[in-house]
Amino acid sequence: MNTTHAKNAAKAAGLISLMYLVSRLLGFVRESQAGSLFNRFETDAFFAAFVIPDVMYYLLVGGALSAAFIPIFTEYLTKGQEEEGWKVASTFINIVVLILAVLTILGVTFTEWLTPLVAPHFKADKLNLLVELTRIMFPAVCFTALAGLVGGVSNSYRRFLGPALGPNVYNIGIILGAALLGTRFGIKGMAVGVVAGAVGNFLTQVLFLRQAGGKHYRFGYIDLKNPGFKRMLLLWVPALIGLSADQINFWATTAMASKLPEGGITAIRFASRLILLPIGIFAAGVSTAFFPLLSSLATEKKIDAYKDTLSFSLRSIFFMMIPAGIGLMVLREPIVMLLFERMKFTHSDTILTSEALLFYSLAIFAPAAVLMLPRAFYSLQDTKTPVIVSFIAVGSSIFLNWFFLNHTSLGVKGFALSYTIMGLINMLLLTEILRRKIGGIRGRHIGRSFLKSLTASLAMGGVIYVMMLFSEAFVKQHGHLGAALIIFAGMLIGGITFLAVAWLLKMDELQMVVRFIRKRLFPSKKEA
Q: What count of Cα atoms within 13 Å lies in the side-chain half-sphere of residue 494?
């Protein structure tokens, strides 16, 4: 693996991770506001209102960026054909914008017919609120899509600040909507904040666009016969089909969850957001930063460097995500209590959410790895394999959701467990197929690293668990302060334990982190 490229990708991953950390923290402020300012009747409807706009975004833009846009556009840039690349990009962007504009108008017009498909078990008054919230939030999808497309351009140029900064602006818009409009308009004020945040996200991307060659963009330019656009379309369609499986799962999960007692959708939402914190900080940063590098290496036919880069990215994800999952499992109740339990979010809501969090955290490394693995296929311009695997994993998830809901008493825990199983199926199938496709992925190295990370994480979890047993009364007596102190102590003591065991096991990943910190704090004369 090229050392310079790896260092640049690692620095980019660090920047992205920092921005994602800020975004996730703002996200928790946003979710905490929703939980404390509004009751479960309102929050269930609010979170269900995201389904239709999110499905539109991920089908038209989310998959297209990773599977089609970035690999093809990066290929043009790698070959020094920037002007031709922008013709393709302009055509793609303009067509997507037209499609989104039409779908948004149709969505706002026919919201009343669409929302019963999202939450068929909602009672009439709750369904009416869902209709109003969906109609308010629908236009946000256009601006979110535009922000994603512009951010994809920046990522192709390996400029990551704008795309990483935009989600923070989005969260701030929602927070301000709840704070400034919530008292007067209820949760509808928060919905207005969603639209304002989406607009702010798009404008943020535009500010950084010129640094990433934005001057070459052609407004209104469409060339359907362009061979690069045709290639992009061929990659986009299978990815769209694959993402349709994920979105069907998202839709089906929400629809089935509408049958849960009031607060069930909110508990699933909050618990899933908690596991997305470490995934967003670490795994998303690694996968976003290394994806353009993988695309370049695949284009240049440097297969050994490609394998090394992929192995390094997966080992880094496991090294960070396994201890994160164990930590969330052990500290789940004080974490939920500290973040959400106040005002209209009661202790019973805390128990319900922490139960879901336990099952979400069982194999958090799997959905984290799945952020990277499809990108490995996309960099090889293979979008069909992730599609097939996605349908298999999603089919299992929908079946398990139905089974756990109707034939067990698991409730929200069943939805979390099915998500975990789906992630494992997805990860294992993608890994095995990729291994056969490229003749190995340094699997033994990855396996050893995984087992060492798991050993260190279990030691960490054991120490935190013992500490929790001796501090249970303290937390109950001191409320939020007690929860905060226990979380801090657990992270500190647990973190030291994990690092100590990782050091004893001579983990390469730990040594790389130490070398990176040492160079940043004590640079040599050459580096300075």
A: 28
C-alpha to C-alpha distance for 402 and 414, rounded to whole angstroms:
9
d(C-alpha 63, C-alpha 377), whole Å: 13
Residue 436 forms part of a structural domain: no
* Domain residue limits at 213: 38-262
Separation of alpha carbons 117 and 255, rounded Å:
7
484: tokens are 């905060």
113 inside domain: yes
* Secondary-structure percent of the chain, ordered helix, strand, coil, rounded to 5: 85, 0, 15
Encode pLDDT of 460-475 as tens digits: 999 999 998 888 777 7
pLDDT score at 521: 46
> Would you say residue 67 lies in a domain?
yes
Q: In this predicted structure, what is the pLDDT of residue 353?
A: 94
Q: For residue range 243-287, what is the model confidence (pLDDT) as tens digits?
A: 677 778 888 889 999 999 888 999 999 999 899 888 877 787 778
Contacts of 395 (CB under 8 A, 6+ apart): 245
CA distance 333 to 354: 5
Q: Which two tokens stand for residue 192?
A: 């207005």
pLDDT: which is higher, 278 or 194: 194
pLDDT at 518 over 60: no
Domain-embedded: residue 24? no
- Burial code (b: 16+ CB inside 10 Å, e: under 16) for 119-146 equals beebeeebbebbbbbbbbbbbbbbbbbb
Question: 227: how many CB neighbours lie within 10 A of its CB?
Answer: 10
- Distance CA(15)–CA(11), nearest Å, equals 6
If one compares 527 and 137, the residue with the highest pLDDT of the two is 137
**Encoded tokens for 299:** 């284009």
